[in-house]
Design a protein that fits this description.
4-stranded mixed sheet; binds uridine-5'-diphosphate-glucuronic acid; transmembrane; Rossmann fold; 6-stranded parallel sheet
Length: 291
């Protein structure tokens, strides 16, 4: 038999079922059991016992006790469970997230990922989140989709902003991964001027941010900077063979100028930079069409 619900009485012995008031056209009345559902359950839980049966029993008992105060509103609260054996912490709000490492604040980086809703970006976001960092994604969703990172939305370490990198973006961060750019021929040729503007202005804005915040900066470049190469395989010393006015130039030359900017900021301003020239990639979340 489940324990009887808890009733709170006022000084006249009348049960209190709500707080706030509804008068003068202003309604601030909230049922008490809804409020209790939000604040009564312990938010932070330590779990050292991998014993599943014990955990399930303890959780069931907690549910019963919680339901005595909260009636039908028992599932409204977030919870954080720390597992000392793996050093991970699981956060639960209304949905449950994969466990991420619990890092000491000094090891936890504030990381900005531009283009983080895209194919490569979303896998990077997964990795950084699982490692326990704080990740902010900015993306204009031109080719990316919120669904690629929707499993992190609501997580306390995750933020997503709809923003076009051609406009400046101000944030305090320790690292910047700059991936925002249309990457497949139909996408980058859709608006060639915008593509090269994104590469140039976007990279300039992100390098400016890296300079101001002293953030480490990585840009995802491309094997296309080699153009139509005369050397196979291409080594980093090879400078490429690019047609500057051809239909692919907006992407190829855009990434080349982005690399030039990146090394310019390194030489002039001491920005800590990395360039990753990505060759053809595919996998889960990539589009099922040739690119
Ligand atoms: O292989 C490569 O060379 C490319 O790899 C990735 O591109 P990928 O993940 O394959 O492509 P998408 O899935 O289209 O991701 C690009 C992301 O940038 C975003 N984006 C695009 C254009 C723009 O102006 N702003 C912007 O935020 C898109 O919405 C998308 O989320 C990198 O994001 C590119 O910078 C890199 O050039």
């Amino acid at each position: 038999m489940s324990p009887s619900p808890i009733h709170t009485l006022d000084k006249n012995g009348v049960e209190i079922t709500s707080v706030g008031f509804n008068r003068f056209g202003f309604d601030s009345e909230v049922p008490l059991d809804v409020l209790r559902a939000l604040y009564l359950r312990p938010h932070y839980v330590m779990s050292s016992a991998p014993n599943k049966i014990k955990d399930i029993e303890a959780e069931a008992e907690e549910e019963v006790q919680h339901a005595r105060f909260t009636g039908e509103h028992s599932a409204y609260q977030s919870k954080s469970v720390y597992h000392p054996s793996t050093g991970c912490i699981s956060y639960t709000t209304l949905s449950r997230f994969p466990p991420v490492k619990l890092l000491a604040p000094s090891n936890r980086k504030r990381i900005l990922v531009t283009g983080g809703a895209g194919f490569v970006g979303s896998h990077l976001v997964d990795r950084l989140m699982l490692l326990g960092h704080e990740v902010t994604v900015i993306d204009n969703f031109f080719t990316g989709s919120k669904t690629t990172v929707s499993h992190w939305i609501g997580h306390p370490n995750f933020e997503m902003v709809r923003h076009d990198v051609v406009e400046p973006f101000m944030i305090e961060c320790d690292q910047i991964y700059h991936l925002a750019c249309p990457a497949s021929p139909p996408h980058y040729q859709f608006n060639a001027v915008k593509t090269i503007k994104t590469s140039f202005m976007g990279t300039l804005n992100m390098l400016g941010l890296a300079k101001r915040t002293k953030a480490r900066f990585l840009i995802s470049s491309t094997s296309e900077i080699y153009g139509d190469p005369e050397v196979h395989p291409q080594t980093e010393e090879y400078w490429g063979h690019v047609n500057p006015i051809g239909p692919r130039a907006c992407y190829d030359e855009g990434k080349r100028v982005a690399e030039t900017l990146t090394y310019g900021f390194q030489r002039q301003d001491g920005v800590d930079v990395r360039v990753a020239r990505i060759f053809n990639t595919y996998g889960p979340r990539s589009e099922l069409r040739p690119s």
